[in-house]
Amino acid sequence: MKATAKAHTNIALIKYWGKRNEAIILPTNNSLSLTLDGYYTTTTVEFDESLSQDQFILDEQIASGEQYNRVTAFLDIIRQMAGKQLFANVTSVNEVPTAAGFASSASGFAALAAAGSKAIGLHLSEKELSRLTRRGSGSACRSIYGGFAEWEMGMREDGEDSYAIPIAPANYWDIRVAAVVLSATKKSVSSRAGMRRTVETSPFFQGWLDSISYDLAEIKQGIKARDFQQVGEIAEANCMKMHATTLGAKPPFTYWHDTTLVVMQKVWEMRSQGIPVYFTIDAGPNVKVLYLPEHEAYIEQTLGELQGVTDIRLSKPGQGITYI
Ligand code: PMV
What we know:
36% of the residues lie in helices and 27% in strands. It is built from 8 helices and 14 strands. Strands 1, 4, 5, 6, 7, 8, 9 and 14 form an 8-stranded mixed sheet that branches. The longest helix is centred in the middle third of the chain and has 20 residues, at 205-224. Belongs to the diphosphomevalonate decarboxylase family. Residues 7-164 form the Diphosphomevalonate decarboxylase-like N-terminal domain. InterPro entries: GHMP_kinase_C_sf, Mev_decarb, Mev_diP_decarb, MVD-like_N, Mvd1_C, Ribosomal_Su5_D2-typ_SF, Ribsml_uS5_D2-typ_fold_subgr.
């Protein structure tokens, strides 16, 4: 009744932005991501008849409050699927520096779903595992797969057809992502609250939704052709549209800080000099820069010289779920 799994985080090139059902996490649009090798979570789950409640140890500390509640609520789903009333010891180690602005929830829930379902004796396919993972954190359902993955929003209201599918594996194409870490502090609007506010109040939200199918078709064509310019242009434009919805919300908000814009402008400047480089930004101030391996040294140095940039972390495409 014990299993250990490792999952990597992912960066969305076409963003998941908006829920149509908050309780079981159903999105308003498909999204597409690249799994990254640099950031991962390793989780061990052991179900034990002698326990009277779950225990969750995160990075060698006993977790409580919201963190603990999200894990037990997720274990409840696994228990219900298996038809077993057993509590578990969960031990997680995060190799996702929070400062890099990656949500550890993506690798965290993917690893928890994989280890938990295996430990309790469920034999899930990747599709079933992705669907389960979605219930913990939406973006996490894409981390079941390495390389490029697409989360299909599905049409059903019970969520049965809402899960990720693989688009191309990690070794398909060596494109790189630099996480540009800014000195800025914690974000003030969570992704959950930000999504809700834009869905409910932003007049730009419909425009966002209307543009998704074009972006998806174009980026998939770009991935198929290994056309870096096409993939980069679409990813950057899609990011700009997502962030534009927040400016139209009531009250308006933005995840950007002054240095966010400094990095964006530097990316545009490098591009005007002929270097193929693009950015994307999630629900926070840090910028993720997409580039090809031959430009790594130049990009790392150029971005590292910017005032307000505290660190640059480089990553390659990463693998999907592995069991240890
Ligand atoms: O899955 P969540 O609740 O962490 O939301 C993620 C939302 C974005 O990172 C902004 C976009 C995405 O698709 O990952």
